[in-house]
Specification:
Shape: globular
Number of helices: 13
Order of helices and strands: EEEHEEHEHHHHHEHEHEEHHHEEH
Strand order of the largest sheet: 6-7-8-3-9-10-12-11
Radius of gyration: 21 Å
Largest sheet: 8 strands, mixed
Helix content: 25-40%
Number of strands: 12
Distance between the termini: 34 Å
Length: about 325
């Protein structure tokens, strides 16, 4: 296993109380595999990724339990200097807002080349040549000329390609892509996802794709982990999950995807709001919004039931949901 997250807990201490953002998350990804992590805003997707990368703001954030094993090493036991050597060189992250993630006063060539200067000790001239190679690799036209341009001179889709190039610079074993298609039109979204899939195959790297859009990952992911209120409520191979979800929340997400065969009908929406992380409901956190909720859901936290050898569901009534 390339990366294995075990029983991770993250909380944020604020003036109003303690927000339990991640509550016992466990998942893993192998080399050459894509794991999609899905869920509404506030479900803990990005916080988990930040904890894995070691870029969580502490304080107010704090990792209160768990292990993050990367190539057999527990990253939480490494000193900051050791952790810094892992970031970029062995694992990298693509952030969702490329414009705010790139430095507006430095040309893209300098930002791409910095990775080689810091981690490989290259000269600025050689680093610039590497930057051009990377821009060519992610299909940015006229890379030799555009390497001297600034982020605002690129379109949203081109800026996202620069972020992908930056993540790929040192050929890491793992890339975490946090909402990489946010604010892009549908055509550009497809291009970016195809590029990520192609690069994953070429470099045989692990890819964690964080998104709230089930439609985006249908043709890219191998497995899906669905998060709600800081927990993984269902994990399954992508085709199994789409064919028959084993958790009411997953079913709700699938039902809310627009479909051509339902043209003219009102789009389904999950009722209610995500829970306050400072006051997560007792029992199953989804029960106030769940159409299948019964008394046991209000009192007992469902464990990750074994649906099959490769599938888990944190629902007391997963069988009814699966057949429903």
């Amino acid at each position: 296993m390339l990366l294995e997250v075990r029983d991770l807990h993250v909380e944020f201490r604020t003036r109003d109380g303690v927000a339990r953002a991640v509550n016992g998350v466990s998942y893993g990804v192998d080399a050459g595999e894509t794991l999609a992590v899905l869920g509404e805003s506030g479900s803990g997707k990005s916080v988990t990724a930040q904890a894995v990368m070691g870029i969580l703001d502490m304080p107010p954030g704090r990792i209160t339990g768990g292990e993050i094993l990367f190539q057999g090493r527990d990253l939480l036991q490494l000193k900051e200097e050791q952790r810094r050597k892992v970031r970029g060189a062995e694992m990298a992250m693509i952030f969702q807002d490329a414009l705010s993630s790139l430095n507006p006063v430095l040309c893209v060539g300098e930002q791409l080349g910095e990775m080689f200067v810091v981690h490989r000790g290259m000269s600025r001239k050689d680093a610039r040549a590497k930057a051009v190679e990377l821009m060519d690799r992610v299909r940015i036209p006229a890379a030799e000329e555009r390497v001297r341009q600034y982020p605002h001179q690129f379109s949203g889709g081109m800026r996202q390609r620069i972020m992908i190039a930056m993540a790929l610079a040192l050929e890491p074993a793992l890339i975490i892509a946090d909402e990489p298609t946010t604010a892009l039109d549908v055509t550009v979204q497809a291009q970016v996802m195809d590029l990520l899939a192609e690069l994953r195959r070429e470099y045989d790297m692990g890819l964690i794709l964080i998104t709230h859009d089930l439609g985006v990952v249908a043709d890219v992911a191998d497995r899906i982990a669905v998060m709600y209120a800081g927990r993984i409520v269902e994990s399954a191979p992508v085709h199994d999950l789409y064919k028959a979800p084993a958790h009411p929340y997953t079913r709700g997400l699938l039902d809310s995807i627009p479909r051509l065969d339902l043209k003219g009908r009102e789009l389904y929406a999950i009722k209610g709001l995500p829970p306050n992380l400072m006051d997560i409901p007792q029992g199953c956190a989804f029960h106030p919004r769940c159409p299948m909720a019964q008394d046991v859901c209000r009192t007992d936290v469902p464990p990750p039931y074994e649906v099959s050898e490769v599938r888990r569901s944190a629902c007391h009534f997963w069988r009814e949901c699966l057949n429903g």
